[in-house]
Design brief:
212 residues, alpha+beta, Peptide Methionine Sulfoxide Reductase, Chain A, 6-stranded mixed sheet, two-stranded antiparallel ribbon, 5 helices
């Protein structure tokens, strides 16, 4: 979203907006494309991953098109303000990243494959931006749930960084950190590129494939 915020300095918890105690909007029940629920509880055997890779519109479509994905949703994660709105996140005063929840069946698509897709389909070297989108909400991040996800994410990140270094592409700035609360974004942002197929998508990789 090229009209997003411009702040590249993370606020501290004492500087963040106060937020609220609940959602100021209704979250859709089902995914527009996949037809499955957007919110937990998910069926047995379904696991969840979280990725931040710039504007969440294109990132969500990338994952819902992957075989083995049960559902996806866009939201705000790893910030300070409870139940933030889009406008608040874009102000740079909540600390959140635009994030994608990916619920997947690991017997059909592995977490390792999803991390490889994440690194291959955006530029993880840009810091607090992604292309024309500048601001803390556009930072690159993998928000892991548990030590197995953490180990896989760090291992793939480090190997991919070596591949990028070998061709002079610069160091990876992707944050690998525990998943904080995922706050769902407003209904108009969920599966946005299904409703607006020619809408903005800022995804652009480095040109170097990520081997898993």
């Amino acid at each position: 979203m090229i009209f997003g915020g411009k702040s590249t300095e993370m606020p501290g918890p004492d500087e963040a907006l106060p937020g609220r105690t609940g959602y100021p909007f209704a979250i859709p029940e089902a995914h527009r494309v996949l037809g499955n629920p957007l919110r937990e509880p998910f069926p047995d055997g379904v696991e969840v991953a979280y990725f931040a890779m710039g504007c969440f519109w294109g990132a969500e479509r990338l994952f819902w098109q992957k075989d083995g994905v049960f559902t996806t949703a866009v939201g705000y994660q790893n910030g300070f303000t409870p139940y933030p709105t889009y406008e608040e996140v874009c102000s740079g005063r909540t600390g959140h990243a635009e994030s994608v929840l990916v619920a997947f069946r690991p017997d059909e698509v592995s977490y390792r494959e999803l991390v490889g897709l994440f690194f291959s389909e955006h530029d993880p070297t840009q810091g607090m931006r992604q292309g024309n989108d500048v601001g803390t909400q556009y930072r690159s991040g993998i928000f892991f749930s548990g030590p197995e996800q953490e180990e896989i994410a760090i291992g793939i990140r480090d190997r991919y960084e070596a591949d990028l270094d070998a061709v002079g592409k610069g160091g990876i700035t992707t944050l690998v950190e525990p998943a904080g609360t995922f706050y769902y974004a407003e209904p108009e942002h969920q599966q946005y590129l299904d409703r607006v197929p020619n809408g903005y998508c800022g995804l652009a990789g480095t040109g170097v494939s990520c081997s898993i």
